[in-house]
User: What shape does this take?
Amino acid sequence: MTSNISAAYLIRGCDRPLKDERQMIPASKFQTQLILATAFIADDELKPTTAFLQALQDWPTIYDGEPISLPLPPSVPSEFPSAILTSHDQSLSIELARTRINVYWKRVESNKNASINISDIYSQFSDRIATIAEKNKVVIGRLAALRVSKANDPTPGRMLAKQFCREEKVLNGPLNQLEGFELHAHKVYELYQAQNVNSWIRIKTSGSPGPDYEHIFVEQDINTLAEEVNIKNFDRANIRQFFNETSSQLDSILKAYFPGDTEE
Assistant: This one.
């Protein structure tokens, strides 16, 4: 099920976009800045030090940066990472906690202009999560996919208001001469057979307040339901399916809110 643009119009005065789509910001203006795959451990806790050593052995040429392993007391929250692997250029990382695995890609100076394939990245991340879970004999009870994208615009707040709000609110109403703007929407739906998810999107201006706002950030998060973490068991095939479905869904949602082609 694809999110549609009507989900954005959840605030008073934002229930109808302007008619002139030539003024709209297309998805093609956005560049992906961050991709995150997260797995939540059910029941048994992961031993981060053991998983850390296993990951170093399995992917030494990928995570070839300075590794970090911190002994933490039991009082530290179980989702806090105590072992971190990174690539030399800092674009890739794995964070290991007792109840959570985070696998990242981020845009850094060395890849600042690179085109990426989100589906390929999530495919790689799903296999790494599955390998960690299998070799450490833990159950994955919940999954999440997050993507952060950025576009530049000289007047991002006004542009977003024009795109998402009623014309009279923007031209002569309370949203006239807007500088900053933020919109947050949440949906729950069936992503694929028998798998319900939360789908969040947050669209906001960024930069210095006032005339120095210059960026639009879109944060998208699709995750399985928290209340099902102890009744689900995502094996390798299920993990692959989730991230395969979410990678295409993230693109579809971005296109729905910002009609046009995505960078990837």
The first helix runs from residue 48 to 58. Residues 5-257 form one domain.
